[in-house]
Amino acid sequence: MPFVTINVLKGKSRDYIKAIADEVNAAVIDTMDFPEDDRYQVINECEADHLQLQTRAEDRVMMHLVMRAGRPDHAKKAFYARVVESLARNPGIDPGNVMITITENRDIDWSFQDGVAQFCPE
What we know:
This is Tautomerase family protein. Pfam families: Tautomerase_2 (PF14552). This protein is α/β, with parallel strands linked by helices. Helices cover about 30% and strands about 25% of the residues. It has one domain (about 1-105): Macrophage Migration Inhibitory Factor. Strands 2-1-3-4 form a four-stranded mixed sheet, with helices on one face. α1 (about 15-30) packs antiparallel against α2. The relative contact order is 0.21.
């Protein structure tokens, strides 16, 4: 149940964006043991000069996950590998052009609705 922000170049097709969103979600579920119905994604389309990844000028994706602390390093490494492998296959992004960051937080840092910290019962 991470909150995933995915940044892609502007002008890509709906199928391209859907492929990225679906592949990232599948990787989260398969490698980090999140429930299948926990999908929280925001996808931003950026002008080329607003999505800078060092000197890479071709197709690129940058994503950031925010999630509760506790996933083991091996699960995160498996996630990174699965994402770049999947995105290379569909929609065809070079693994060297995918950047992934993860930020962990605590149970109190989440409210899904109603202004309540659902992970922290009273």
